[in-house]
Records
---
Amino acid sequence: MSLPAAAVAALVALLAGAAGWRAAPWLRTLARLSAHDQRQPWTLRPAVVACTCAGLAALSVLTAHAQELPPATWSGLAVGWVAAGAAALVDAAAHRLPDVLVLRVGGVGVALAVVGALIAGRPALVLGALAGAVVGYLVLGLVAFAYPPGMGYGDVKLAALLGALLGLASGFGPAPWWGGAIVAVAMLLLAFVVGGVGSLVLLAARRVTARTAVPFGPVLVLAAAVVAAGFA
């Protein structure tokens, strides 16, 4: 890793962390927790939000650099990853994935990255993003349709966002759109494995029951981050 890339990653992480710290009260509002609510979910504490946003932003830059993505896409990828991470923290606290984070902020991030790829003359990256988004949406969409109690449509939209972000970072080879589909499948498989093992551990520890709803958003983001780290 070159010094400029490390410096950019550190700067982006610092900015994202500061933004996450300031956004923590807003995330409590999105989680429908009032300022006077006695509940203090640890996932929405400023330090946790700041560290999550900083880590994902840095990961996005390091991944983009390792995959030789055009610098014009870096800011968009960082915005998308931070939005996904913030949504996952809200999901862990309140079992909801706000559209304002997943669709609006995350969508803006993907749009910025796509525009940057087109400006840089890398339309293949757009195909990778599209393939990743479609696979993420369709697979979890089918699960949500088949078993609504076990999967919400917020998870479906988050999977599409993460699939697009991973697809943008997989634009390599003669048919890069295949890369977008493959990394989205890898993310979903890993998420199901981690989610299943995590649920069994919680059941064994008696922290949940068989009827307890466990948020899937954090698992999705964790799985996507692990796949992305493989690129870096």
---
Amino acid sequence: MTTPSTSTSTSLSAPPDDLFAARTSGTSIRPTGGIPFLRLCAVELRKQLDTRAGLWLLVAIAIISAGFIALNLFTADAEFNTWTNLTASASTGQLLLLPLIGVMAATSEWSARTALSTFTLEPRRTRVNLAKLASASSLGVAVMFVTLAASAIANVIGLVWLDGDGSWALDWGIVAGTALALILLVWQGVAFGLAFLSTPIAIVAYLALPTVWSILTFTIEALAEPAEWLDMSLTLATLMGGEMTAEDWPKLLVSLLVWVGIPLGIGLWRTARREP
């Protein structure tokens, strides 16, 4: 005679027909997998765009980018009104503000108190954090494509009405370097957000710490040489200028290890152990 507890556990684990079929065929019943990674990325991207802060930050980025394009069109010499220069001008505001969306994406689970529901649906927290990195990167790439399109329209305006150069020859070293720098800065924003798990503290740290370090390297002569390896603003400037050489790539990697790798490692460790 079967006890109630045994029958209950059997009915909860799998239907009797499935158990009988599995036993007779020699196969085992395996639990279903977790949430697909691409779906996690889509959810994290939606989080970045659905909040009022994220939406208004994107609006601010669009306005500032348009302002820099207009400034280049109406103040620069005609020979500098090219597709490449307009794209580089529009990217100035994006390099400063878009990483803040990465910060908010990393801290949203804790500031909006959604960590419990998120990590209940997907208990593998590192996987969720990697989805935040991937979605923030895709947003950076999308913004870069929009920038290229807006700069192309501005190039036509400069060519037709402002006697601009109107060159359509893209300097792919500058464009690719700027796009990669944008992605790396967004990663830095996510890393700082995960390390501090507080939106205001993470934003202040992201803006203040690299700035203070840059000021120190300019004022203290002994730090000038280490800054070539440890100042991310210097290594990214070379990258965005399309002037990377074999000696510059190791410097970029070391600066990324310090300003992205270390805070990201701290953030992954903290989020893996913090109570939701």
